[in-house]
UniProtKB/TrEMBL annotation:
<feature type="domain" description="Calcineurin-like phosphoesterase">
    <location>
        <begin position="48"/>
        <end position="213"/>
    </location>
</feature>
<dbReference type="InterPro" id="IPR051158">
    <property type="entry name" value="Metallophosphoesterase_sf"/>
</dbReference>
<keyword id="KW-0479">Metal-binding</keyword>
<dbReference type="InterPro" id="IPR004843">
    <property type="entry name" value="Calcineurin-like_PHP"/>
</dbReference>
<protein>
    <submittedName>
        <fullName>Metallophosphoesterase</fullName>
    </submittedName>
</protein>
<keyword id="KW-0378">Hydrolase</keyword>
<dbReference type="InterPro" id="IPR029052">
    <property type="entry name" value="Metallo-depent_PP-like"/>
</dbReference>
<dbReference type="Pfam" id="PF00149">
    <property type="entry name" value="Metallophos"/>
</dbReference>
Amino acid sequence: MKWIAGIGLFGAVGTPLYSFGFERGWLEVTNVSLRLGEGDDASPLQGLRLVHISDIHYGFYWGREQFVGLVERINRLKPDLICFTGDLVDSVPDDLMSCLSIVQSLEAPYGKFAILGNHDSRHEVTQVVDFWAESGFKLLINEHVAVEREGRRFIVAGTDDYLNGSLDLPLTLRGTSEVDDTVIMLIHEPDIADVCALSYPQVKLQLSGHSHGGQVRLPLLSALATPPAGKKYVSGLYWLGDRKMPLYTTRGIGTTGLPIRLFCRPELTVIDFV
């Protein structure tokens, strides 16, 4: 009985301490290899390294010191392209703009792109927009950018937020070709992927965040709770529709609601196109 009581006490006390004090800051780098196309139809992304970041939630137990460490970690990975899929802030702290020089030091020869998340749009969105405008990132709001690489091009497209913004996929992809273009689509909420997979063949990959992977997961029970539009594709790599469009949902960097993670480490995703 003493052993049982001791184990129960350890679980009651140790689990919150572990989830707040340790796992919440225990960043995992996930490496993913993707092949899009074969032979003469090989993707213009072949040989490119993309780093996918999401859900920093700056201001909610995540601040300048953590930002410095994250940026140093990303630069050591030597990305060709960096994509951020929303929720830079949890609320808008007074010192957000003091992090500009940190973010400006991120290096990616083929560009740095960002979109808004539901938390960004819930608060004073103009501050977030101003931050990205000065950071060296291109903020995409229902628009796309063509990137030239070795005589070919690919497209990075990004939508406004689905929950608190005005997501418009036709506007985002206007002017792209269903036959000739290779589009990386950035959408904060992953469950929108079904529309991309079924209706827009030029979208060859969707990157999303939002779900935090559940943030708290239990063995055999998976995620305890997930947010609206983040319930179907919660974490990791999925292949959707008849053409098997890949979607990657990252668990993100920060936390919201409660400053804890359990069996759901924060994630930095590295995608190598082979």
